[in-house]
Amino acid sequence: MKYQRPKGTTDIIPGETEKWQSIEKKAREIFKRYRYQEIRTPIFENFEVFSRTSGETSDIVTKEMYDFFDKGERHITLRPEGTAGVVRAYVENKLYGPEIQKPFKTFYMGPMFRYERPQAGRLREFHQIGVEAFGVDNPALDVEVMAMAVELLHGFGLKNLKLALNTLGDDESRSRYRKALVDYLEPRAEQLSAESKERLHKNPLRVLDSKEKEDQEIVANAPQILDYLTEEAAVHFETVKNLLEALGISYEIDTNMVRGLDYYNHTIFEIMSDSKAFGGKWTTVCAGGRYNGLVEQLGGPETPGIGFGLGVERLLLVLEAEGIRLPLDNELAVYVVGIGAVTNAETLKLVQSLRNAGFSSERDYLERKPKGQFKSASRLGAQFTLTLGEEELTQGKVNLKEMTSGKEIKVALEDVYTDFEKLIAKLRA
C-alpha cells in the first residue's frame, strides 16, 4: 500500500515552513502594535457553534463541514472558520466582564477544514490568520480593523490591492431590503440557477453572491441595499467612508457583496488582488466585517463585534506570483569544520557552546573530508567557519573565517568559548 496525505491537504516541509513563520511573525508584529492579543481555541467544536452562527443555508453548513458523532455520541465539527469558535470562547470565559478593557481585541492563527473541491489556494485543510474585536459599535473600530488589514498586506510587499466595501445595515434595513429583493427576484425565478432558486426565500441575499452567469445578469439590475438603510445604518456607513478617506485609504463600493456567512451586518469588506496567481482577475485575499448579534446567539450579552480573516495559502500564492521574497529566519551563523577523528569531541563541544551563546551552529556528522565540509558550509549559507585540525587542537588554536569576505584569522580556542562576539569584531577590524 502506498501511503499518501489525504486529498485536499499538504505537507509543509522545511524550506517552506520558514515562509509560514515569516508571515506569522509579521502578523504578530502588526497585531501587537494595534493591541491585539492571541487566542487559541480548539480545532473541533460542537456542531451547533457553527450551524447556529454561520447560517443554515450557507455553503459551509450545507456542503462543506467536516462533522461527525464521537464515541460519546456528541455531534462534533472540525472548525470551518475562526470567528464562531472565538465568540464561543469569549462568552464561555466571560471576556465581556466589567474588568475587561473595551474593545476586547484578539487574534488567532491555525488550520480550518472545509470539504470542497481542492484547487490552488483553496484546500480542505487550510490556514487562517484572523482578528476579532468585541464590545464597541463605533465606526472608527471598523476603520481600524480595515486599516490594520491593509497595513498587514502592504507589510508583505503587496502593492496593487483593492478594498471593496459594502454594508448590510441593521436588522430593519435587512428586513426592508430582503422584501424588495424577493419582490424583484420572484418574477425572474425560473431564470435563476438551481442553487439560487433554493436560496430565493431561505436567504435571498446570497443570490447576489452567486458566481453563475445567469444569476449575475439578473442581479446586475437588482435593488441595492444602500437605498433601504435606516437612518442609523446610513450614518454608520457614511462615517466609515469618511474615516477611511481621512486615513487616505481608497475603497470601492460593491453593493452586491454579501459575504458567505449569515452573521454579518453593517460594514463588510474584502481586500482583493489582481495578481497573476489568479490570472489577473481581482480575487479576495482578506475579508471580514461587523457581526453585531453573534455573541447573543451563543448565549452572551448584547455585544457588537468585528473582524477579518486571511487565508495563508492564498497569500503565499500571491507573494510567489508577484516575485516577493519573504525574510526567512533560517540563517546559519557558524559551521565548525573538524579535520580528523581526534577533533570529534572538541567540535561537538564547540557547536554546543556556540548554540548556548545564541549562535546557530552546525558541524559534520558524515566524516567528510575538509573540502566536503566547506562545501556544506557554503551550501547552508554559513556566515563563519571555525576550522579545527589535530595541529590546532594541540596548540589550543582554531581558524576563524568570514565566508563572504574570505578573511581569516587564527584565534585561541578558549576565546571561542568565552566571547565569540569579540572574535568576530576582531576579524572584521
Describe this structure in words.
The structure is a single chain. This protein is an alpha+beta fold and 429 residues long. It has two domains: 17-170 and 230-321, BirA Bifunctional Protein, domain 2 (2-Layer Sandwich), CATH 3.30.930; 334-428, Anticodon-binding domain (Rossmann fold). It has 16 helices and 16 strands. It has helices at 17-33, 47-54, 59-64, 83-92, 139-155, 171-185, 194-202, 213-219, 231-246, 294-297, 312-321, 344-356, 370-379, 390-395, 413-418, 420-428; strands spanning 37-38, 44-46, 67-69, 75-78, 104-113, 125-134, 161-167, 252-253, 265-273, 283-290, 305-311, 334-338, 361-363, 384-388, 397-402, 408-412. The strands form three sheets. An eight-stranded mixed sheet has the order 1-5-6-11-10-9-7-8. It has a five-stranded mixed sheet with strand order 13-12-14-15-16, sandwiched between helices. A hairpin with a 5-residue loop joins strand 3 and strand 4 (75-78). It is elongated and about 95 Å long. The mean pLDDT is 93.
